[in-house]
Design brief:
Blueprint (H helix, E strand, L loop, with lengths): L17 H16 L14 H20 L5 H10 L9 E5 L3 H9 L3 H5 L6 E4 L8 E5 L8 H23 L2 H6 L7 H4 L3 H8 L2 H4 L9 H8 L4 H19 L17 H23 L8 H24 L5
Parallel strand pairs: 1-3
Antiparallel strand pairs: 2-3
Helix pairs in contact: 2-3, 2-6, 6-13, 9-12, 13-14
């Protein structure tokens, strides 16, 4: 497991013989290639520490650009290219969040209603399933000309989304997300978009403004609950609502959810997604004034609780308990 919570198909695969592990990796690479999906060999995979070092390097450069009043879409793009190996340069593209909904409809085949679901995001990264294609990081580029706080937020948002992009491009995360080892498409098991629909139901709580502190009272209060028990009940209700948004036919008239969304596979996926967001927020926090509490700190804790919730649901099913 890596810090983001994904099964990263470790180099050894539990095998003691390095040659056997390498052969196993080559088998996977060949199997995924038949599906048009990239799979990295062990020598191509970036460690979490290398990703962290890369983010530290680009953060220093972005801060320098900001101090010299040189921030622009082009200089941000150049900064990203600067920290990438030659073969990956211009494979992570910076785009304007103002164009997101239009791009989703015109370039990615979303309906207008589907595109509207992404209206309130502060930044976004699209990971391709094939590394020959490009990542797209959407940022609120208007903040380049904003206040110092807005520019700091822009930089930290880039760090957050770039962490997702680097993991997707230089670790086998995207591969694990899209297919399991038996090559069954995930969208035949459940719709991965249910996680976005679930998390988006909590955006109003995250974006209420700057929290005064991160105490339990503040944390639960913003969510309209008193304790963890009530929070988990809210998670259950919002999960049902998210499934109904993502796949209306999988929620019965009595409110019960299809087994497609009540199974260990789905809960583990949701846990991994929540853990990855939590990790990204912890990375984002690292690159700003620690005394500056923001909604991002609050979001990090919320995603942490989401991960624990889905882990508990998965564990309950493993024990044969009804959820």
């Amino acid at each position: 497991m890596i810090s983001g919570g994904y099964n990263n198909n470790s180099v050894s695969f539990g095998l003691n013989n390095p040659q056997a592990a390498l052969y196993r990796a080559s088998q996977l690479k060949e199997a995924y290639a038949k599906k048009g999906i990239s799979y990295l060999m062990p020598n191509e995979v970036w460690s979490n520490s290398k990703i962290s070092e890369t983010l530290t390097k680009i953060n220093k450069y972005l801060k320098f650009l900001d101090e010299k009043n040189f921030l622009s879409k082009d200089t941000i793009q150049n900064a990203v290219n600067m920290v990438l190996p030659v073969h990956a340069q211009n494979k992570i593209l910076i785009k304007d969040l103002a164009n997101l909904q239009n791009d989703l409809v015109k370039e990615k085949g979303y309906t207008v209603e589907q595109a509207k679901k992404w209206a309130n995001v502060g930044g976004l990264n699209f990971n391709p399933i094939n590394n020959k294609e490009t990542n797209e990081i959407y940022l609120k580029l208007a903040d380049i000309n904003g206040t110092e706080r807005q520019r700091k937020y822009l930089r930290s948002t880039l760090i957050h989304e770039l962490q997702h992009a680097l993991k997707g491009r230089f670790q086998n995360i995207t591969t694990s997300n899209v297919y399991n080892i038996s090559n069954v498409p995930m969208n035949e098991r459940f719709k991965p978009s249910v996680f976005h629909d679930f998390e988006s139901l909590f955006y109003p709580c995250i974006n209420k403004g700057i929290p005064s502190d991160l105490s339990n009272e503040e944390f639960y209060g913003r969510l309209g609950v008193k304790n963890k028990k009530e929070l988990y009940k809210k998670f259950v209700d919002k999960y049902r609502e998210a499934v109904e948004i993502a796949s209306p036919n999988d929620v019965r008239s009595d409110g019960k959810i299809s087994s497609k969304y009540i199974n260990k596979d789905c809960f583990d996926y949701m846990r991994k997604k929540a853990n990855d967001e939590k990790y990204s927020y912890s990375i984002q926090t690292k690159f700003r004034d620690k005394s500056d509490i923001t909604a991002r700190d609050y979001a990090g804790r919320l995603y942490s609780e989401m991960a624990r919730f889905f882990a508990s649901m998965s564990k309950a099913l493993t024990k044969g308990e009804q959820v």
